[in-house]
Design goal:
532 residues, 8 helices, 33% helix
């Protein structure tokens, strides 16, 4: 009986072991089949897209041949002097600019050929003019080929991120049954292109278009011999004609942007200057009333200024500690929100003296921002490492708490009504979907462990500062930087032990443009533009 019982136990043990092995193998097979199906689907997307791109490329080559033939015919025909000029400008203007022009991009091909055409018009008359112009066009074509090689290198350097971006867009399209909308003229022209491929090409062309930040102007914010030069906030006004700066110097300075860019450096003087009682932490222009700007300061005071009269319009003194952030609503211009070290978020109306709403949180508030498409939704960045997204119609609890940062959230900015970006002293930027309440991507490359280094966004790009005294630019679809620019210390010996302690303290994009402003803790302000 004992031996029988032993055999029975051994049999059961063997069966259990076999069942565990069988379950594992079945699970592994299912996982690998799923992976294989995903790879097969991915390969099918790639095959379809390769066919679409090949067809489109052949069409472009045929168009180029037709234009080249037409150009040669017109070059040989002295009567066709005038049409040659206009047709070159019209046809060759768009020939090499095959990618979609994303917001913030420039149609470089078109600009280049217009420039060539203008050169042709002022050259000496007759056939010599045509020969010179054709050689110039050929040299431009050669430079385009060189540019293509450089852009290909950028693709290889970021291949993994670009691959992930492509597959994500193609899978999303496959998983959702979308109604085809002719919302973009380029998509309509590219017959056979899927929406996912068109979206990815936009990312690819925008990402590879730029490789550096070029300085086009520079000015000083404060006294060279005064240590309190940190620029804590820099903001363009509603029309991008003026920009304001503020910081620990206790002054709001307003500059004319075109004057800063076009006039000599020694002529860079503010058009308006307003003194304040305390150090300033943040600025926000009113999106409707052009001459109104709000400030928050180290005494917890939120002030609305009229830059025309240089006088304060309203002063709110309810915060009990330092106010770090203030923001005007884009859709309801009389409303603004502020956040403070007193752990309170306060909503104000310029039509009344007291706050209209108060949210008491458990941690210091570092940043607040209105959703650009709503006057009732705000994002709040806190020292508790989280972003709290509130509907102001019910503030008893947030709509959602976005978690992921490992340190205090220093900035929150909206790229669109549904896209939110955040910066933290954990040296990362993060993107969030506030519609579906999901994390999207983490961006790494800069250094930020203790200071407010600035964050600014436009439709495609994010920029932020670094404690290495560098400005970094990211594309929202790629987790690594597109480019960066280091601030020099022209007035200080590089061997100076303090030279390495400067950091970027504020950044701001010009709306829908590759141009941005950046300032550092030394008080240097630069106008930078993304360049190839």
């Amino acid at each position: 009986m004992l031996s029988e019982k032993k055999r029975k136990l051994e049999q059961e043990e063997a069966e259990r072991n076999m069942q565990i092995l069988l379950d594992f193998l079945q699970m592994l097979r299912k996982q690998k089949v799923d992976e294989l199906n995903e790879v097969q689907h991915d390969l099918q997307y790639i095959k379809e897209d390769l066919n679409s791109v090949e067809r489109h490329r052949i069409d472009l080559y045929r168009a180029r041949d037709r234009y080249s033939m037409k150009l040669r015919m017109l070059a040989d025909d002295p009567i066709g002097k005038k049409p040659w000029s206009s047709s070159t400008d019209r046809n060759f203007g768009g020939l090499f600019s095959t990618s979609r022009n994303a917001p913030g991009g420039l149609p470089t091909g078109n600009l280049t050929y217009k420039k060539v055409d203008s050169k042709a018009q002022i050259s000496s008359p007759g056939p010599q003019r045509k020969d010179t112009s054709i050689s110039e066009l050929n040299s431009q074509h050669m430079s385009q080929s060189g540019l293509a090689v450089v852009r290909k290198k950028r693709v290889n350097a970021q291949f993994n991120d670009l691959q992930e971006c492509y597959l994500q867009k193609r899978r999303q399209l496959a998983n959702k049954s979308r109604v085809k909308e002719e919302k973009d003229a380029d998509v309509v022209q590219r017959e056979g292109y899927s929406e996912g491929l068109a979206d990815f090409q936009s990312v690819l062309s925008t990402f590879t278009r730029y490789s550096r930040l070029r300085v086009i102007a520079e000015l000083r914010h404060g006294d060279l011999f005064h240590s309190a030069n940190i620029v804590s906030s820099i903001e363009f006004d509603r029309d991008d004609e003026l920009f304001a700066t503020a910081g620990v110097s206790r002054r709001i300075k307003v500059f004319d942007f075109s004057s800063v860019v076009n006039e000599p450096a020694d002529a860079h003087c503010p058009v308006v200057e307003m003194s304040t009682r305390s150090k300033l932490s943040c600025l926000s222009w009113n999106k409707y009333t052009k001459n109104h700007i709000a400030s928050s300061d180290y005494d917890g005071i939120v002030t609305v200024w009229d830059v025309t009269t240089r006088q304060s319009v309203m002063e709110y003194e309810e915060h009990e500690k330092r106010a770090w952030s203030v923001d005007f609503s884009r859709t309801e211009p009389s409303m603004l929100v502020s956040g403070s070290d007193d752990c309170k978020v306060k909503v104000w109306c310029t039509k009344q003296e007291a706050s209209v709403l108060n949210i008491d949180m458990k941690a210091n508030i570092c940043c607040v921002k209105y959703n650009p498409g709503s006057s009732v939704h705000i994002a709040v960045g806190s020292a508790d490492h989280h972003i709290h997204y509130y509907d102001l119609r019910n503030t008893s609890q947030p709509v959602h708490i976005f978690s992921g940062h490992r340190k205090a959230v220093s900035y929150v900015k909206f790229l669109s009504n549904n896209e939110l970006a955040s910066a933290s002293t954990d040296s990362t930027l993060r993107l969030w979907d506030v519609k579906d309440n999901l994390p999207v991507r983490t961006l790494r490359g800069h250094t930020n462990e203790k200071n407010f280094v600035g964050l600014s966004v436009n439709n495609e790009f994010l920029s932020c500062g670094s404690e290495t005294n560098e400005v970094f630019v990211y594309h929202k679809a790629i987790s690594k930087p597109v480019t960066w620019h280091r601030f020099g210390s022209p007035d200080i010996d590089e061997a100076d032990e303090d030279a390495g302690s400067y950091f970027i303290s504020a950044v701001c994009w010009k709306s829908d443009s590759p141009t941005m402003l950046a300032a550092n803790s030394q008080g240097t302000i630069k106008v930078l533009v993304l360049a190839a």
